Amino acid sequence: MTKDGLNKCARQCVLNKKACTNGGCRHFIDYPEEYNCVLVTVYEHGNLTLREVAERIGVSFARIKQIETKALAKLKKSDLAL
């Protein structure tokens, strides 16, 4: 990964203006508008709101909020909180 946050695969997708088809990639997300890549999403838009995350992965805002709350509680419990 380079300074801009894109790896070789993501950079090729952007340069070729073609969505990634590697569904096994850990950065893959079924969102062709951003080349099916989370790295491209962050590169183009920066931080996302919970609503934007929900839209991209196809679940409700409430579910994303539940996941966030649980993750933050786990971090706090393990003393890894910021």
Please, could you describe this protein's structure?
The protein is mainly alpha-helical and 82 residues long. It has 2 domains: 1-47, no CATH class; 49-82. Helix content is 51%, strand content 0%. It is built from 4 helices and no strands. Helix 3 crosses helix 4 (61-77). The radius of gyration is 15 Å and the shape is globular. The two termini are 24 Å apart. 15% of the residues are buried.
Keywords:
82 residues; mainly alpha; 2 domains; globular
The percent range for helix content is 40-55%
What Rg, in angstroms, do the CA atoms define? 15 Å
Provide a count of the helices: 4
Topology order in helix (H) and strand (E) letters = HHHH
Sheet with the most strands? none
Category by helix and strand content: mainly alpha
Look at the structure and give the mean pLDDT: 89
- The number of distinct β-strands equals 0
**Total of domains:** 2
Work out the strand percent: under 5%
In short:
The protein has 82 residues and is mainly alpha-helical. It has 4 helices and no strands.
Topology overview:
Layout: H1 8-16, H2 38-45, H3 50-57, H4 61-77
